[in-house]
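Key result, reporting period 2: structure in, sequence out.
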């Protein structure tokens, strides 16, 4: 039986240290990639900057490249949180006054949909040190109630991403949905699952809720966002079994695109062209008959 390929999609995380302009988006489309996810980092896309947001809106209105999703901001500064602890956006923050400021920041990012419509908004639950306890669950529930309502009013669905902390593993996400009665779907991150409970186990638990995915590689311990099947410095490669991973992903081709979320590599001349090569290699992988 012939293998079915998933629709290609690319996160702008691959060039997140550059200001997001229409030149970058043109490169994505010219590489034969029909869908894009925008990563909200203010040095890249300053969602507070109405002129930049409006420029992208005009471009998408006339473009064949479609905005599939937007990733919620993780920091509110332009230097990856290095300006101080107050720059971290954590919707499980227990202090209500602080948490509401973070929710307001997320709403600013969601307002992108008013000029550049998109389908999904990708949201983390907590940071790498977040624990699964009553305080974090209650805070996340309170935040998401407001975020989800704000998103739905704009025709956007909020997806929760599995992340390597005690609150956001596949199993814990299902527990969270049951406890809070939030009937949400998920963005399945293969790299994060590889670091935590394993890709196959996590996928089996979440498969019916998966609406988008993040594809990247790592060594099983660090969140490296490596390029699958492509050594970046001659030696750096990840440890994900991509034959098996692609078999799993192909089992539900109508639910999500194959979306690469790669780190920016300064010495890489053309990250978009590198992404195109990765798509080719992943699609060429053949699943053994006995699997």
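The corresponding designed sequence is given below.
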């Amino acid at each position: 039986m012939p293998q079915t390929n998933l629709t290609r999609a690319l996160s702008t995380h691959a060039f997140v240290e550059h200001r997001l302009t229409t030149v970058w988006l043109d490169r994505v489309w010219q590489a034969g990639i029909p869908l894009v996810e925008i990563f909200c980092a203010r040095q890249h896309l300053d969602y507070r900057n109405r002129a930049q947001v409006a420029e992208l809106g005009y471009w998408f209105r006339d473009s064949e490249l479609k905005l599939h999703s937007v990733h919620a901001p993780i920091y509110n500064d332009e230097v990856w949180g290095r300006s101080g602890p107050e720059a971290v956006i954590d919707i499980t923050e227990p202090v209500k006054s602080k948490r509401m400021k973070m929710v307001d920041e997320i709403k600013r990012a969601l307002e992108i949909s008013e000029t550049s419509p998109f389908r999904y908004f990708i949201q983390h639950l907590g940071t790498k040190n977040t624990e699964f306890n009553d305080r974090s669950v209650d805070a996340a529930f309170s935040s998401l109630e407001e975020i989800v309502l704000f998103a739905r009013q704009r025709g956007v669905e909020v997806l929760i991403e599995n992340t390597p902390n005690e609150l956001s593993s596949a199993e814990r996400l299902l527990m969270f949905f049951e406890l809070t009665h939030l009937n949400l779907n998920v963005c399945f991150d293969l790299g994060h699952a590889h670091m935590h409970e394993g890709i196959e186990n996590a996928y089996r638990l979440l498969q019916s809720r998966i609406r988008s995915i993040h594809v990247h590689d790592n060594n099983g311990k660090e969140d490296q966002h490596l390029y699958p099947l492509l050594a970046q410095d001659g030696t750096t490669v990840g440890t994900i079994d991509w034959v098996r991973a692609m078999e799993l992903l192909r089992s539900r081709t109508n639910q999500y695109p194959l979306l690469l979320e790669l780190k920016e590599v300064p010495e890489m001349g053309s990250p978009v062209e590198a992404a195109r090569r990765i798509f080719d290699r992943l699609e060429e992988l053949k699943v053994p008959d006995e699997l």
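The CA atoms of residues 137 and 176 lie 7 Å apart. The chain is about 35% helix and 15% strand. This case is discussed further under Risks and Mitigation.
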